[in-house]
Amino acid sequence: LRGGGGGPVPVSDGPTVRKDERWPLVWSEFGEISAVKISDGKNGCYYLHFITMNPGSLFLPVYLHSEMVLYVNSEGHDVETCFGWSVIVTSKELDVLKDTNFGVFVVNLAKGSMMAPHFSPNTIEIAIVLHGQGVIEVVCPGIASETGCKNSRLRVEEGDVFVVPREHPMAQMSFNNDSFVFMGLMLNEKKESPQYLAGKLSILQRLDRKVLEKSFNVGNTTLDWILSNEKEDIIYECVSCAEEAQGGSGTLSWINVEKDDDKLQQVVLKHGDIFRLSTQTVFYLQNNVEAYQYQPQNLQIYAIFPGSEVQLQNDLIVGAYTAVHDLVLGFDN
């Protein structure tokens, strides 16, 4: 055996830790043990060990200084549809967890599926991706203690660890080309189930209608439509939702033909970026393909053209070149 990662395991600020960022503890030709220490940004950090064993190897007897959870997949699921399944195990289902402050959950999303938006009122969720890749969309709650919070979209893949703080609404989505499986821990003394925001199980169904009308600033008819979804499922088909949530990334190159320097300018665009191009600008876009992606993502850009003082023929705004020279000026071969 060889061991030691060069000191104590460093704390990751989260919300994700990639598989290749795990801290090596012990390794040999028969396997390895690595660790992650991830922070939820509030209540401290959480320590996880990963044991990888090669075929025909033996993990020698060890003395545990903490509780250990072993998960074996079975056919008993709380929710099961053609779009995936999920299971939650707490002290209510398993006596050996009665003196602990955590529960265990596993979610398996089929290709092009989504787990309905939900949140955990008193539970921090820490999860590990077991198979595939997906997108975790996390929304900041509207509470005073979260004034500095920002909404986030996390792209994760097999071996990654991610954490979602309590009271943060979230939705998990799989890509169209593969299933997305993850398991995790719900860390809290209260054994509460997630609160869903859609369907028959939605928490909105339990609130007073007059309060909802005032909160959403809508009338009776609109509220009826909001609450009319009678689906009890919490896993839905959602083709291309993960792809659209990512939106791709790209490079924008442009030249302003009115300026004398004719200097080519470039900027890398990520999801959510906003950019402005002035009149008399020639530009092109390139879709960036990141190395870790199984398949390229579409680069989607939405353009807004304010009213122009100049009336263009046939309302042509993009592609209104005055000459071929303006189109090719300054670009490479």
UniProtKB/TrEMBL annotation:
What Pfam family does this protein match (any one)?
Cupin_1
- Domain Cupin type-1 intervals: 70-224
Per its UniProt record, what SMART domains does this chain match?
Cupin_1
Q: Which SUPFAM superfamilies match?
A: RmlC-like cupins
Per its UniProt record, what InterPro entries does this chain match? Cupin_1 (IPR006045), RmlC-like_jellyroll (IPR014710), RmlC_Cupin_sf (IPR011051), Seed_Storage-Functional (IPR050253)
Instruction: List the protein's name.
Output: Cupin type-1 domain-containing protein
Instruction: Give the originating organism.
Output: Ambrosia artemisiifolia (Common ragweed)
Taxonomic placement:
Eukaryota, Viridiplantae, Streptophyta, Embryophyta, Tracheophyta
